[in-house]
Each structure stands twice: as C-alpha cells, then as structure tokens.
C-alpha cells in the first residue's frame, strides 16, 4: 500500500511539473497569451490603484483566469488541428473558428465585468 501512495504522490508532482511547463510555454511563445498577461497585469494595477473590494478582486481574478485559460485551450486546439491537418481544410477551419469564438465571448464578458467594476470609480 505504501508503494501505491508513493507513486500517487510522485505522479501528482510530475503532473504539476508538466502543467507549469505548459504554462511557461504559453507565456513564453504565444503572442495571444502574452497580450492577455499584459492586460491582466494592467488590470491588477488598476485594482490596487482604485482599491477595489474583495468581491471585485475575486470577480476580476476569475475573469482573468477564465480568459487566459480559454486562450490556452484555443492554442492547444489550433496546434492539434494544424498537426492533424497541416493544409487548409474547411472542417479544421470551422473547429479553429469555434475555439476562437469561445475566446472572443470570454473576452467580451471580461470587458463588461471590467466596466462594471471600474466605470463607477472613474466617473
């Protein structure tokens, strides 16, 4: 039984290692993620400047994590699609468009949430 628990813990540590590597690769090499990270830093700076509430911080951080996560999933979908079918394909194009649409929807709602939080403080 000890051996199984040891393997479980080692496997969880390896999983975290792979996840950190994936996050690093996204931030290091994907321009869309880099833009989202810069926006996230700016928004966090605004949060400190305007002294937003705990609830507003929670909503802002959830929104930031949602957009960046969906952007990462979109990147993975695009990489898989390009690997499976490197040449132009209508079906692959549709898949990529739908994934990009998910990022767009999350981004639009992130802007709305940002306006709800910051517009009253600015005006």
Automatic annotation (TrEMBL):
InterPro entries: DAGK (IPR000829), DAGK_sf (IPR036945), UDPK (IPR033717). ATP binds at residues 12, 18, 30, 78, 96-97. Substrate binds at residues 12, 71. It is found in: Cell membrane. Its cofactor is Mg(2+). It comes from the Bacteria. A divalent metal cation binds at residues 30, 78. Keywords: ATP-binding, Cell membrane, Kinase, Lipid biosynthesis, Lipid metabolism, Magnesium, Membrane, Metal-binding, Nucleotide-binding, Phospholipid biosynthesis, Phospholipid metabolism, Transferase, Transmembrane, Transmembrane helix. CDD domains: UDPK_IM_like. Mn(2+), Zn(2+), Cd(2+) and Co(2+) support activity to lesser extents. GO terms for molecular function: ATP binding; kinase activity; metal ion binding. The chain crosses the membrane at residues 33-52, 98-119. It is a multi-pass membrane protein. Pfam families: DAGK_prokar. One of its GO terms (cellular component) is plasma membrane. Its main location: membrane. The active site is at residue 71. GO terms for biological process: phospholipid biosynthetic process. PANTHER family: DIACYLGLYCEROL KINASE. Belongs to the bacterial diacylglycerol kinase family. This is Diacylglycerol kinase. It comes from Aurantibacter aestuarii. The lineage of its organism: Bacteria, Pseudomonadati, Bacteroidota, Flavobacteriia, Flavobacteriales.
């Amino acid at each position: 039984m000890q051996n199984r628990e040891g393997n479980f813990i080692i496997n969880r540590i390896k999983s975290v290692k792979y996840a950190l590597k994936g996050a690093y690769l996204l931030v290091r090499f994907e321009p869309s993620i880099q833009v989202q990270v810069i926006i996230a830093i700016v928004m966090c700076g605004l949060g400190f400047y305007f002294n937003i509430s705990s609830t507003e911080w929670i909503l802002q951080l959830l929104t930031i994590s949602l957009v960046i996560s969906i952007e990462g999933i979109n990147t993975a979908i695009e990489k898989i699609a390009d690997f499976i079918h490197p040449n132009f394909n209508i079906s692959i194009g549709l898949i990529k468009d739908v994934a990009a649409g998910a990022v767009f929807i999350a981004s639009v709602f992130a802007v709305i949430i940002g306006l709800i939080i910051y517009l009253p403080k600015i005006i």
